Amino acid sequence: MTQDTRFMPRIARRMAGAQASEIRELLKLAEAPGVISFGGGIPDPALFPVQEMSQALTDVLADPVTGPQALQYSVSEGDPALRAWIAAYLTDSGAPCTADNILVTTGAQQALDFLGRLLIDRGDTVLTQWPTYLGALQAFAPNGPRYGDLGGANWMAQGAGADPTAFAYVVPDFANPTGATMDAVARERLLDLAHARDLPVIEDSPYAALRFEGQPERSLLARDIDRVGRIDASRVIQLGSFSKILSPGLRVGWVAASQEIIGRLVLMKQAADLNASRLTQMAVLRVAERGMTARIDRACQSYRQKRDAMMDALSRHMPEGVTWNRPDGGMFLWLTLPTWADAAAILPRAIEAGVAYVPGAAFYPDRSTANCLRLSYSLPSPEAIETGIARLGAVLAQEKP
Ligand SMILES: Cc1ncc(COP(=O)(O)O)c(C=O)c1O
């Protein structure tokens, strides 16, 4: 009798297309010593509140009331005090709401999974920016959407074909992957579309607080509340996260939306994992209450310095024909190569030369555009940024049509 060493069951149709991408495999090579990676959108661990979290966890557990609460099951909506803090934070930023409008999720990523399952029927159109956040495309994929391009020339008609449109999804502030921010006109236009077509808008905004230049743009949620009077009538579902302003390892994010939508999502949260860790939520609240502003300012200072180092290095090392944008915040910028170039094909040569990035095609719903790539400046030091961009410039200068 032969012994099989591996077992693979039949995979449900909705998950059959989900595969690890070859890019992911290549980026593993980018972790080799000596390779400077502009690949992952990874916060700088030097900014993590290690001491503060340690103290907060001790305080929560040492308290005779909160200690046992922290270690017990709790409500699926999330820790009531943390929800109240998030609601106050959003109210301060111009989007009045209460704790009843907040669901705490395991990162914003979990909210993307829930919203895909809640709102997309197979074949529905989802309107996004092209390129857009790869994790959203992955979260929506099992539900079988088609995609329309919000940047398309005839934007009002986007997704107005035979298939129903499920929602519009945008990362309006310092987008992953491009670092671009929607201006006021684009935001109002998107809300016009949402109202004209009666569509929900998912505003995924984990980077909004990381603005280190220019004036903040009012959020889509705040603007829609201006239009309709209150969050419970709003079409906007806003996703937030502590990942980029405290630490991603906490896995604490949230959804802010009408109570109707929150009610639906709470049922999904219950089915998915009952509740987010209350211990973590209670500790996050303590750290947040001790002052987010100074913490965010420090992150902005650090990322600004790194953005500047990258802009400076790009201007000195990139060959003719390569262009890029200048983000006012966040962690990313977008590099466009000459139209004949394929960033995925170049990546192995770049890794060989000791530098890595994410090829841009993966961020397009149809993977159509090959001559672009994402650079993240959040993790390497300014010195490493200079060296890495010099290496990338040398690799790109070798490429020929
Ligand atoms: C646009 C966007 N949305 C959501 C997420 C997921 O964040 P979280 O860590 O809160 O799950 C990310 C993470 O990189 C992101 O870039």
UniProtKB/TrEMBL annotation:
<dbReference type="InterPro" id="IPR015424">
    <property type="entry name" value="PyrdxlP-dep_Trfase"/>
</dbReference>
<dbReference type="InterPro" id="IPR015422">
    <property type="entry name" value="PyrdxlP-dep_Trfase_small"/>
</dbReference>
<feature type="domain" description="Aminotransferase class I/classII large">
    <location>
        <begin position="175"/>
        <end position="392"/>
    </location>
</feature>
<protein>
    <submittedName>
        <fullName>GntR family transcriptional regulator</fullName>
    </submittedName>
</protein>
<feature type="domain" description="Aminotransferase class I/classII large">
    <location>
        <begin position="49"/>
        <end position="135"/>
    </location>
</feature>
<dbReference type="Pfam" id="PF00155">
    <property type="entry name" value="Aminotran_1_2"/>
</dbReference>
<dbReference type="InterPro" id="IPR004839">
    <property type="entry name" value="Aminotransferase_I/II_large"/>
</dbReference>
<keyword id="KW-0808">Transferase</keyword>
<dbReference type="InterPro" id="IPR050859">
    <property type="entry name" value="Class-I_PLP-dep_aminotransf"/>
</dbReference>
<dbReference type="InterPro" id="IPR015421">
    <property type="entry name" value="PyrdxlP-dep_Trfase_major"/>
</dbReference>
<keyword id="KW-0663">Pyridoxal phosphate</keyword>
<keyword id="KW-0032">Aminotransferase</keyword>
